[in-house]
Design goal:
alpha+beta, D-amino Acid Aminotransferase, Chain A, domain 1, Dna Ligase, domain 1, 3 domains, globular
């Protein structure tokens, strides 16, 4: 958990929830917190980790959650006397969700939760992801990819008039994302997005319900009940996702059964096209509340108390502990 990502705190919250809820009768849990610069890997105890302050209250970007009662880890084999059977990856965003840590674990011959290198890398790169989906005939938003310090007149030619939706091509949790309603907003939104990436996606603005579909499994995967998202802010941004009162979720989503099945079918198809494993979440917007458009996939969706995958799993009859058990078993499988 943790790591070199703008989603550092969210990863810590996800990681702590995994530690808090995993079945300790089945598993010996070895929490490893990676520092903000990625250089320090600190092994601590579950008890010590859970007694530390809430990561969401950390405002100083230089503050590390684990500062005492730990040992530095120099290699996977040092985590315990017998090494690690499975690494549960609770790292969101760059270096955790993009195939980087997955490649390291593959090289070390250690099993891990979630998707492999290729699926993780494609899922994280929204531009590559959309190109793949377009080639497979799956509906995506009309968009323009804009490079830093390049002319963006093409935006107006392709998308027409405002509003637009702007976001970096390689971040999660709506980091650096904005709705744009005029020229001044566009300048600000592009500057914000370029802080995180040299390539920014400018989407057409689609009006309609926001829906997400969780997926569990490897080859024999299943779609969870749909979640309808009603953010308190203008869109499902970072604050809406991780503030307890930031959004309202309706499970199952208020859409007809036939549309529910269609959304789940598309989500499963996307999951299989990428070659995902274990678990993921596919986000949609319904054009005119009728036609599903795929926005992105999260190959390591949030596991915080506010996150959508655990809520959907609960509706399907799985407790948080049972959900974690399934994810670990998929990794072993």
């Amino acid at each position: 958990m943790g790591g070199k990502t703008p989603e550092h705190e969210i990863s810590l919250i996800s990681g702590r929830e995994v530690v808090r809820n995993i079945d300790t009768k089945k598993y010996e849990v070895l929490p490893v917190v990676i520092s903000r610069n990625g250089k320090s890997w600190r092994l601590t105890s579950p008890q010590k980790l859970l007694s530390l302050p809430d990561p969401s209250t950390i405002k100083d970007l230089k503050t590390e959650l684990v500062r005492a009662g730990y040992k530095d880890v120099q290699g996977i084999d040092q985590m315990s006397k017998v090494g690690a059977d499975v690494v549960f990856i609770a790292m969101h965003g760059p270096y955790g969700e993009d195939g980087t840590v997955q490649g390291m674990l593959d090289l070390a011959g250690v099993k891990y939760t979630g998707s492999g290198v290729a699926a993780s890398a494609i899922g994280m790169d929204k531009l590559l992801f959309r190109k793949l989906l377009k080639s497979e005939g799956i509906p995506i938003p009309k968009f323009v990819a804009v490079e830093k310090n390049k002319d963006y007149e093409k935006i107006f030619k392709v998308l027409g008039n405002f509003p637009y939706f702007v976001k970096p091509h390689n971040q999660g949790s709506s980091v650096g994302a904005s709705i744009v309603k005029n020229q001044e907003d566009l300048e600000k939104a592009l500057n914000l997005a370029f802080k995180y990436s040299n390539i920014t996606l400018v989407d057409e603005y689609i009006l309609g319900k926001e829906i997400t579909c969780g997926i569990l499994g490897n080859e024999a995967s299943i779609a969870l009940p749909l979640v309808e998202i009603i953010p308190k802010n203008e869109f499902f941004d970072y604050d809406s996702k991780y503030t307890e009162s930031g959004t309202q979720e309706i499970i199952p989503a208020r859409v007809p059964k036939s549309l529910t099945k269609e959304i789940q079918r598309i989500a499963l198809k996307v999951y299989k096209i990428l070659g995902c494993k274990g678990f993921a979440r596919v986000d949609f917007i319904l054009r005119n509340n009728k036609f599903p458009v795929v926005l992105e996939i999260n190959t390591i969706p949030g596991l915080t108390p506010m996150s959508l995958l655990p809520k959907a799993a609960k509706k399907a009859g799985f407790s948080y502990s049972e959900l974690l058990d399934k994810i670990v078993n998929y990794a072993i499988e």
